[in-house]
Amino acid sequence: xxxxxxxxxxxxxxxxxxxxxxxxxxxxxxxxxxxxxxxxxxxxxxxxxxxxxxxxxxxxxxxxxxxxxxxxxxxxxxxxxxxxxxxxxxxxxxxxxxxxxxxxxxxxxxxxxxxxxxxxxxxxxxxxxxxxxxxxxxxxxxxxxxxxxxxxxxxxxxxxxxxxxxxxxxxxxxxxxxxxxxxxxxxxxxxxxxxxxxxxxxxxxxxxxxxxxxxxxxxxxxxxxxxxxxxxxxxxxxxxxxxxxxxxxxxxxxxxxxxxxxxxxxxxxxxxxxxxxxxxxxxxxxxxxxxxxxxxxxxxxxxxxxxxxxxxxxxxxxxxxxxxxxxxxxxxxxxxxxxxxxxxxxxxxx
Amino acid sequence: xxxxxxxxxxxxxxxxxxxxxxxxxxxxxxxxxxxxxxxxxxxxxxxxxxxxxxxxxxxxxxxxxxxxxxxxxxxxxxxxxxxxxxxxxxxxxxxxxxxxxxxxxxxxxxxxxxxxxxxxxxxxxxxxxxxxxxxxxxxxxxxxxxxxxxxxxxxxxxxxxxxxxxxxxxxxxxxxxxxxxxxxxxxxxxxxxxxxxxxxxxxxxxxxxxxxxxxxxxxxxxxxxxxxxxxxxxxxxxxxxxxxxxxxxxxxxxxxxxxxxxxxxxxxxxxxxxxxxxxxxxxxxxxxxxxxxxxxxxxxxxxxxxxxxxxxxxxxxxxxxxxxxxxxxxxxxxxxxxxxxxxxxxxxxx
Amino acid sequence: xxxxxxxxxxxxxxxxxxxxxxxxxxxxxxxxxxxxxxxxxxxxxxxxxxxxxxxxxxxxxxxxxxxxxxxxxxxxxxxxxxxxxxxxxxxxxxxxxxxxxxxxxxxxxxxxxxxxxxxxxxxxxxxxxxxxxxxxxxxxxxxxxxxxxxxxxxxxxxxxxxxxxxxxxxxxxxxxxxxxxxxxxxxxxxxxxxxxxxxxxxxxxxxxxxxxxxxxxxxxxxxxxxxxxxxxxxxxxxxxxxxxxxxxxxxxxxxxxxxxxxxxxxxxxxxxxxxxxxxxxxxxxxxxxxxxxxxxxxxxxxxxxxxxxxxxxxxxxxxxxxxxxxxxxxxxxxxxxxxxxxxxxxxxxx
Amino acid sequence: xxxxxxxxxxxxxxxxxxxxxxxxxxxxxxxxxxxxxxxxxxxxxxxxxxxxxxxxxxxxxxxxxxxxxxxxxxxxxxxxxxxxxxxxxxxxxxxxxxxxxxxxxxxxxxxxxxxxxxxxxxxxxxxxxxxxxxxxxxxxxxxxxxxxxxxxxxxxxxxxxxxxxxxxxxxxxxxxxxxxxxxxxxxxxxxxxxxxxxxxxxxxxxxxxxxxxxxxxxxxxxxxxxxxxxxxxxxxxxxxxxxxxxxxxxxxxxxxxxxxxxxxxxxxxxxxxxxxxxxxxxxxxxxxxxxxxxxxxxxxxxxxxxxxxxxxxxxxxxxxxxxxxxxxxxxxxxxxxxxxxxxxxxxxxx
Lengths: 350, 350, 350, 350
Known about the structure:
The structure is a homotetramer of 350-residue chains. In chain A, strand 2 and strand 3 form a beta hairpin. The first copy, chain A, has 11 helices and 16 strands. Chain A has helices spanning 11-23, 51-54, 108-121, 145-158, 169-178, 192-199, 215-227, 255-262, 271-275, 278-291, 317-333; strands at 2-5, 27-31, 38-42, 59-63, 83-86, 89-91, 95-96, 98-101, 125-127, 162-165, 181-184, 205-208, 233-237, 267-269, 296-299, 337-338. Chain A is α/β, with parallel strands linked by helices. Chain A has 2 domains: 2-63, Phospho-2-dehydro-3-deoxyheptonate aldolase, domain 1 (Alpha-Beta Plaits, 2-Layer Sandwich), CATH 3.30.70.1140; 83-338, Aldolase class I (TIM Barrel, Alpha-Beta Barrel).
């Protein structure tokens, strides 16, 4: 950590900063410059809170050189973490699973059909929301516990593991009874109570990047999960807020190699929310794999025109089959392969 | 709601859109244009979910003409809502309360001293966090229930009403036992489970704008509170994410007159988080009042250099007194006045 | 300047960084940390280009401690710069000039009437575009040289000094013959050829912040003008790009006290472009003055319904008179006053 | 174009809007809704300026249904435009050219060596700046005319066509004498005088997206070039401003399929500026091709540690060779191929 003093800071102000650093238990190393003096804090293991230093007289800025996270970093664990949500469905290794399914679970017929279509096309896991965070209180909020039961049924019918979202503490316990991987949505990325609760449940977690989250913020939120003892964490890029209304979000694919260099955790991409436009899901799914994504999360509906939510960005089943074919070609071009659906031969092709 | 068809959409596609609109229970009004056809949906009361229409073939875009919120709007209730959190401390009327206090409750001595300083300078309510959302799991997370007890003590000593944040369902019930106004923080603005829980508690609520929230998003989240029957809602601008690292957030003061025109709810501003820089709090507090804010929420600490969080943006007590003097002059210049601390004569001056 | 090495950088890589710093003519000061080593570059006067250091092996990041600008900074010149564009119309001192007028000069009748309305209401300078940067090549592009002649006529009729924009080298010379202050628009803030040309013309300049410009970027562009020997520079906040479509731009009023602390140059605000909404111009004009702006730049049209550009954000004449009255009250509340129109008694009130 | 009236707009206000639309030469079609009335403007060919309507009493918003551009749109020309800058080097068809070279031309030795390395690795064109837009007036500004002469020499030595930037009118004429394709940089995307000048020069143009430009803004700027009669325009995504400081810009790859659907012009991507990080150029170059880019623009320097600008994001020659190999594999996976350097057999591989 570096404390940059204002131009014209007095010797007494500089000495006070050094004193506070020493009181905090670290070494202080002042470094006079041509324009201003900087005081280095030496010994930071990533857990120093700089706000006390920012408050001192004569301080212009506190610059963090050490990363503010710890257990999620490559410094803590250099090797890639593999997260396995079902036999053969592993994130972070050479094979790449594709998770697909409708935005919401709507009925037995819908979710079982969707699961079959996902599996037949080559998807490795089923997504579908039972608890839905909706911006309007008047919109469909999901089937709740009934939706979870239908997801369990779809798994029995197809063998696909289930990824589904939890919105609150009570829901997290219910979701954990059914899901193979618990999703934390973008709006809850900094809901620290929920992160702590889910961190303790002992299930793999898929953590989506918040709409205003930097990659550092995303890693800090993952740190909450690891601090509770859960290392089975998959990160997910799903687009951030930007100024161009042409897409629902701005899909930040550079975040993938960026985070993979900083952290040992696997990172997947969601081109459905990342673009919000059905006809951009295939090209951007290809791009995500080319950028190095460890998986995809995609919305597909047996009949998007009848979807109760997100119909406009959901793929038709035949489009999903095309997505699998095209991303498989990209994966092979970079020396990886797609994960096969559980229970199928790994060489099966959609 | 207007459904814009793609250039070259077929008659069959246009007819299908009209048919779906009628199936939804509304009237369809096609309007051919020089470049493309638009189909109007007539009869929307603000609760139509357009995603089904977006999914139809040949649809380029769905444009919302009706506002997606209802009970928070001026159309629903033309007159300003007044929110009273203690006798004489009312938001939305001619007098403007200033809420101040430390980021976190740290000790009895600290919070009681802070409360006295707030009151003596002319502040009308005390803020202070017992439950703190921190980006690092290793940072100080607040004193919890003990912090609530200390806030209650500070109220007994000074008469100032208490504004404090709840982070989760369990905490919301505890906070409701003590607080005069429950704060929902920026990171939880779209935590819909928490919004519903707090909406049912029957206490005034201060809802902060999320870092990536549009003003429409903020109003939609407030709609969750009103949909639970709670109309005692104060909105708060506290800065959004932007590209200039010179300030912690980008303080969007235009949001104040914008929201006040669209909604009957009062709106206050938080220049401490809005700027993140102690020496910008006074000028931007003045600017907020000049823009029409119905109150301020400000961080002040008896000794910012010793603060356990947000020391760098907390005012010193004498700076807070200056803030009150200067914002009073601005309030009077626009024909309003500052609310006096409860139990003091309204003409008292700091 | 601080060169932060990657975790695990070798001694040879650190030595190489120090060697390159010394080759550049500065001192190198390595500082080992718990997680990573930082190498300080000592002696930077604000003109070191860090890109060579960024390219070295083992370098994670280059952090700029010295400001990259020089002559615009308070370190270079501690006292406020006053920019006088006509007798009595000075920016940066205790009195605050308001510049107003139509987006475009459209006719003799329009511009002379507008100038009289500006002057009668208490405005101190006339704005109006002769050369207009328009996003569509098919939109009205301004009257050009004829527009400049009409501005000169309006000045003769009212005594108001003229602020008008130049778009290119040829136009800059023509504008300099007529204008009292040459405006550089937001889209040209980083048109360095234009900055250099205008820097040499010896006229006061009003430089608008670009839509994606940080405050540092704005100051760097001003540095181009000062580097050509022109210190008569007024900066202008006019809103930046953000994600909320509710306003045309996001009006960043915190930039005003921020830049005023870093630089000796005066800074004004343009609430017309800053909001893009006529009914937000008055509250945000008040807020700008309360934040400490050294002037306002406002669009007013004798008949906004007939305006050839920006009609929707232009004030009606009676609204402009109200703006002057309300900002005068704010200015007086903070111990400043509005500049009177040239040739009128300073106590005149609109 | 749709004019949305405020809730509570009077019949007279609605009638006035309809009247103004008819005065403008179009048909007006009022459509009453449950919450508010909308008035459609029928007959817009993409050139209606809505600002006059925005100014009318009772108008809440003007919504553009027609695109504001014309000649760049697929409605104007459905088939892809092919832009050929040298024999065999065509953008917009099945083969994909890679343009590479240093940020700045620095010396004969440097640029000729760079050109050979580009060609030997499989690049199809040479980039290199003679006129450099630099944020600091004290940074190296390019070799100017001497730099152009060195580029011409490098072309004679290698056969590679030249892409280089023009900053102003005078420079544009000089650049046109040498370059095979004139680049307009991000900072000048809305420098309309420069767009008009370059539009008249009759040379292929590469137009980079501005840092705050929406995809619509980019297409509007291209419209300026086409309006001058030049259809040989290549668009370029190079990253936009966002809130995460981890990368220099936010590389918006979704813009590629988005623009390709709206426009017939080819679109390339610049992963060097798009990320600002050398080790992200290869994965994001692969991702750009997977998303459908019609070419790449990449910074490569024979010795990045000695580069006079952008050293930190420039590839080493062996990294560039790897980029070519990996993007070739991606191109083939989606049924395209890389363009060979001019004069070599198309099957040559780097």
